[in-house]
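User: I've been trying to design a sequence by hand for this structure and keep getting stuck. Would you show me what you'd pick, starting by listing the structure so we're on the same page?

Assistant: Good idea, let's start from the same input. This is the structure you sent:
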């Protein structure tokens, strides 16, 4: 299965990376999530692109994202497999223009 996913995943992350970088060093509105971490339109755009892409690649595999709505443990505990993503890991560093951020996608 993974052999057939490598190329589309590289294409997806490249496209998401291009969108993320289009916002780099821009003035971006920052919201604060309940856990006191920043949330931006960049996080949300990357989240939506990745979720849409993964749903096309593996329609029956759930996606759990740092930017997802809260999914109960009862529901998640029934999953045999899922995608775990952080669409823009290092939002603070992104906002501070350190270059220390990435797209995280893991198949669990």
């Amino acid at each position: 299965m993974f052999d057939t996913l490598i190329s589309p995943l590289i294409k997806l992350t490249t496209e998401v990376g291009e969108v993320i970088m289009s916002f780099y060093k821009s003035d971006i509105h920052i919201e604060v999530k309940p856990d006191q971490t920043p949330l931006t339109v960049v996080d949300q755009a990357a989240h939506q692109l990745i979720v849409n892409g993964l749903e096309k690649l593996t329609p029956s595999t759930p996606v759990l994202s740092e930017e997802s709505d809260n999914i109960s443990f009862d529901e998640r505990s029934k999953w045999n497999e899922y995608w775990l993503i952080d669409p823009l890991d290092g939002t603070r560093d992104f906002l501070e223009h350190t270059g220390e951020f990435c797209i995280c996608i893991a198949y669990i």
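That's my pick for every position. To get oriented when you compare it with your attempt: Residues 55 and 61 are 7 Å apart (CA to CA). The longest strand covers residues 83-89.
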